[in-house]
Specification:
The chain is mostly helical. The chain contains six helices and two strands. The chain has a single domain, classed as Winged helix-like DNA-binding domain superfamily/Winged helix DNA-binding domain (Arc Repressor Mutant, subunit A, Orthogonal Bundle), CATH 1.10.10. Helix 1 packs across helix 2, helix 1 crosses helix 5 and helix 2 crosses helix 3. The radius of gyration is 13 Å and the shape is globular.
């Protein structure tokens, strides 16, 4: 069953946990690496065509002001759009904290993500 637009389900909370973790350790978060992390850590969106679903979630999270898109100058890496957690998003930490713990405890997470 499709959730109503503007809801924050488990997948969005997993995405927020990934972005929050990356932000904390000084790594950049962009759509493709978020998708890879969802596959490897949470075993969701396993097919290559599923990457578009991640971008849909990122757009909705931006629309809800829980994350924000940071465009880098054209001279930087492939014109990728990076994402950071907003203050409003940080207020939801209690909802994504269980997923953040999974990310933090993943083997090799410090060197890989």
């Amino acid at each position: 069953m499709v959730k109503p637009k503007g809801t924050t389900g488990a997948t969005k909370m997993k995405i927020m946990a990934l972005i929050s973790f990356n932000q904390t350790v000084g790594r950049e978060s962009y759509g493709y690496t978020i998708w890879q992390s969802l596959k490897e850590l949470f075993y969701i969106y396993l097919n290559d065509c599923d990457v578009r679903n991640v971008y849909h979630h990122l757009k909705e999270l931006c629309d809800l002001d829980l994350i924000e898109k940071v465009d880098l100058p054209a001279s930087d890496v492939d014109n990728r759009c990076f994402y950071t957690i907003t203050d409003k998003g940080l207020d939801m930490k209690i909802k994504y904290d269980p997923y953040l713990l999974i990310v933090q405890r993943a083997p090799g997470v410090r060197s890989k993500y």
